[in-house]
Amino acid sequence: MASLKISVGDTLPKGTFGTIPFTEELADHSACGIPTNLSTDSWKGKKVVLFSVPGAFTPTCHINHLPPYLAQHNEFKSKGVDVIAVIAANDPFVLSGWGRVEGLTDKIITLSDPNAAWSGSLGLSVDLSERGFGIRTARYAMIIDDLVVKYIGVEPGPGVTVSGADAVLAKL
Fold it and tell me: In this structure, are residues 61 and 53 in contact, taking their beta carbons and an 8 Å threshold?
């Protein structure tokens, strides 16, 4: 991973991500949805929890990282969180499919950061080419309030600690 280029107190750099918003038409898995763009500008005036996984459907991300955020959705909302989003280098269709398998509906937004371009600009990408995965988003989490970073937790190694739902809830 490159050196971190964002800190607590910084204004979040603008990013635009592909996403497929959940609709009831997607619920039975017979439709794929149409990707749209979501800009971080839409987070102005909002409290956002953004967490990053190296890849949808990968063991740690699928079993240990995403599910606690969904299970504790109401706790996040009770602490004033307006938006919970997960970001990964996968394309919007894969992330939408993962979200549907996990039952995210409209509780957690899935955001596509192709080639980890935005995350990489913040020093938050990881090169997993030796595993055949290419450049991916690192495992991290942020609390963003009115576009200002209030917390950032970057995993120092394998596993989920500082970027997990419990750690982020404790910082709210």
Answer: yes
Query: Catalytic one among 38, 61, 89, 142?
Result: 61
Strands 83-88 and 109-112: parallel
Active site residue 61: yes
Q: What is the pTM of this model?
A: 0.94
Each residue's pLDDT tens digit, 42-89: 999 999 999 999 989 887 777 789 999 999 999 999 999 999 999 999
For the record, the structure tokens of 10 come out as 């910084």
111: left (phi over 0), alpha (psi -120 to 50) or beta: beta
Cα 155 to Cα 26, 28, 37, 138, 139: the distances in Å are 33, 35, 27, 8, 6
Distances (CA, A) of 146 to 28, 35, 115, 120, 127: 35, 25, 26, 22, 31
